[in-house]
Amino acid sequence: MGPLEYLKNRLDPEQFEKIKAIDNPELHEFLAKYIDLLNPAKVFVCTDSKEDEEYVRRKAIEYGEEKPLAMDGHTVHYDGYYDQARDKARTKILVPKGVEIPFVNTMDREEGLKEIHEIMKDIAKGKELFVCFFVLGPKNSIFTIPAVQLTDSAYVAHSEFILYRKGYEEFKRLGREAKFLKFVHSAGELDERKTSKNIDKRRIYIDLEGETVYSANTQYGGNTIGLKKLAFRLTIRRAVQEGWLSEHMFLMRVNGPNGRKTYFTGAYPSMCGKTSTAMISWENIVGDDLTFIVDMKGEARGANVEKGVFGIIQGVNQEDDPIIWEVLHSPNEIIFSNVLVKDGKPYWNDMGIPIPEEGENHSGKWWKGKKDAEGNEIPPSHKNARFTVSLEAFPNADLEALEAPCGVRIGGMIFGGRDADTWPPVREAFDWAHGVVTMGAALESETTAATLGKEGVRAFNPMAILDFLSVHIGDYLRNYLEFEKKLRIKPKIFAVNYFLRDKDGNWLNHKLDKAVWLKWMELRVHGDVDAIETPVGYIPKYEDLKRLFKEVLNKDYSREDYEKQFTIRVPEFLAKIERIEKIYGDVGNIPEELFKVLEKERERLLKAKEKYGDYISPFQLEKS
Ligand code: SPV
Ligand code: MN
Predict the structure, then answer these.
(1) Which of 69, 234, 486, 603 could bridge to 74 as Cys pair (CB 3.0-4.6 Å)?
(2) Structural domain of residue 460, as residue ranges?
């Protein structure tokens, strides 16, 4: 029996017709194979129609994966208590024998496929399976990558409708031309709270060769929403093979003087201020997580891979995040996940107002002081609790840029990490290679609750992409360095650090200072202000920041604060170079240029140290 015939027998006629309308035998074969393997009771095929989307929304509630909240359009979803973040240990890239990819878990392809197919056999028994079509990037553009998602979770399908552009018509249009990505997900057996029960059999296996990702026995979005971090593993590889960039970056517009619009990308590990930067209320958000960057006639053009936000909710408060606050308190379509709910209202940690002392959260019925099985006190909401909402809900979204088929020209690229003691709050690279190597490839950040495991440990995380690297890091960096050669107009590269502390451990910056750094970077992209040359790049001049602090935040910025923040910490920078060199030295297949750039930075630091000592005030450097 051919695949189409199988599908005809297996699906309701109405659903089958939707599949038949797409002329793509590879798709038919894929669907037949996995519908047969997962063996659901029922299959629903989503077209781009409002009714089909509405069907998915309704099912998420009917099946108990989401509960309606008091406000129109709001629902809450819970993941299992031990299923609250990306599971790095059980996420594996399947590779042929002999292939090694440093830093990520790999597994022999044959073995992995065998295991995951065994785990997924009959896994959707008794459930409804959703077949969904989406695209990454704006529709019908040079960025567009079609993708098909199979999932037995209406919550996952619902999330994708909020986060991605619909792709059924695109599949129909492309027919056999569609070079699509494939995602197979099952939450597995569910417990009474409708959370995945068999966590020990949680697996996220990425088959590069088949451009297919399998995800089983988990619900947390980072493990299950195929088009997000699962697709990201596949697109990084495509980008390296095809000579463009697929990055873990926000995309935003910073508004310069006289209505000037300058677009920036920003790569930060999870929980390092990426989303809150992209959402500064007087700037304009285009995307908060994933950006494709291509060269077009010598320009670097960027587009948001997504059209929605799966953002961290902890710490969102009215004063610092007025826009998100407003969005979360309006009748938009929003899925709150792993928050505290009381009387139909969502609450979260550090929201700046008193919150109830009991209710329901990711641990079930919750009360203040409740402890988990390990004896740890359970906070009101999980640290990695999130909200899922479309960008259309944001009054400051740049929707024109979001859907521009040619993307937007990128003026600057920012790298940021959680760094207590080395990087100043903002600095600019001397050139592309200097930025790519000393800011991107040398990015380190303290670990956070976005992944399972210990928090607060300094971890190497080049381009904030380490968890997702599906190619050898040497090949990835070579592609980055080569990309410059295609560019006639090069984005400037910057590094930021919102988490610098003094020797006593006190933060040196306020949460909103980043808004000033952005304005400074915008001016630098256009050469509007001078800067101070240091051994590690250019830093702002005090006078410029003083003016910007007043203009942007209406704050007086003191010379003392400036000096503390922008002192070049030579021993820390030297130690960092040593760490980074060692890491890359041990890996092999690293472009020689990386070591040269690091060596030059070391020489500059040593020279400056001889002249000024270990801790160099920006005022000293300005004079020289
Ligand atoms: C991140 O952790 O970087 C996120 C959320 O953007 S997740 O979908 O888990 O990757
Ligand atoms: Mn992310």
Answers:
(1) 69
(2) 246-309+399-623
